[in-house]
Amino acid sequence: MRAAQAAFPEWAATTRAQRQEALLSLADALVVRAQEFADAECRETGKIRRVVLEEEIPQCADQIRFFAGPARLPHSGAAGPSDD
């Protein structure tokens, strides 16, 4: 929570386009580093690695990409400051 609070002022000052790009980059990084994230998830929770790699990580990346779309829309309440 401290890290999120510290990052908020910079995040709040970004444009919708920058927020969308950040979310898309996050999804891409999740996919690229899937093995590493799967290892950590399995170590912490005891989940089956194959399930994490084949089901959970792709779904998570897809959801992040989905929400990157509304981050760019001007009528989205969560979109933040205008690009104008």
In words, what does this structure look like?
There is one protein chain. By secondary structure, this protein is mostly helical. The chain has a domain at 16-70. It has helices at 2-12, 16-32, 34-45, 49-71. The longest helix is centred in the C-terminal third of the chain and has 23 residues, at 49-71. It is globular and about 40 Å long. The model has no long low-confidence stretch (mean pLDDT 90).
Shape: globular
Oligomer: single chain
Unreliable residue runs: none
User: What's the helical proportion of residues?
Assistant: over 70%
Short account of what is shown:
The chain is mostly helical and 84 residues long. The chain is built from 4 helices and no strands.
SSE layout and pairing:
Blueprint: H1 2-12, H2 16-32, H3 34-45, H4 49-71
Helix pairs in contact: 2-4, 3-4
Which characteristics define this entry?
84 residues, mainly alpha, 4 helices, globular
